[in-house]
Amino acid sequence: MVLVAIGRKPYTAGLGLEEAGVKLDNRGRVETNGHYQTNVPGIYAIGDVIVGPMLAHKAEDEGVALAEMLAGQAGHVNYDVIPGVVYTSPEVASVGKTEEELKAAGIAYKAGKFNFVANGRARAMNHTDGFVKVLADAATDRVLGVHIVGHGAGEMIHEAAVLMEFGGSSEDLGRTCHAHPTMSEAVKEAAMATFAKPIHA
Questions:
Q1: In terms of DSSP H, where are the helices of the chain?
Q2: Mind listing the pLDDT tens digit for each residue in 141-167?
């Protein structure tokens, strides 16, 4: 097996941006302000041509936010809660901060981890490779990041995204009833592990 990772770049060539006077950064991305406005009045940019992850769902949310702003409403995208998924086998999914980012920022945190090998549904489906890790603020217990490696990670990560969008804690997640047997129970168990109460670890 060979993995080739070449990176991505914004596709801005040939759009007539230079002729319109739209300013680009040193990586060829369109420069915008906090309202997606370029330096040229009436020209806006979203998605893969501006700063941020090149993800379809990020671009979709920016499109909705911009449409709301243009209609006089308060459009907003929470960039701290945009999930990323690597569609491999097993899948890898992540939302929020990594341990490395928290350490670099000097944020005290606690981590809970649960391996799929201890999950009944994963065992029944023979998908026991992988884990769920929950990172929560050491003082407030607010969930700061969730990382999943394993079968169905791309579907399970949204539970964490919703929780984080509303400022939920690992205890909120750990005390929420999850159907049994499901892969999602591993998310609950990882959350419970942040406050030393895992059931099946």
A1: 17-20, 56-70, 99-104, 120-125, 153-165, 170-174, 185-193
A2: 999 999 999 999 999 999 999 999 999
Domains delineated in the chain? 17-77 (3.50.50.60), 81-193 (3.30.390.30)
Q: What share of the chain is helix, strand, coil (3-state, %, to 5)?
A: 35, 20, 50
Q: Which of 35, 76, 180, 200 is catalytic?
A: 180
User: Cα(10)–Cα(37) distance, rounded to whole angstroms?
Assistant: 17
**Residue of 34, 27, 26 whose CA lies nearest to 9:** 27
**Residue 180 appears among annotated catalytic residues:** yes
Nearest 5 degrees, angle CA 74-CA 78-CA 83? 145
The model's pTM is 0.89
pLDDT digits (tens, 9 = 90+) for 60-91: 999 999 999 999 999 999 999 999 999 999 99
Q: Which two tokens stand for residue 162?
A: 């919703």
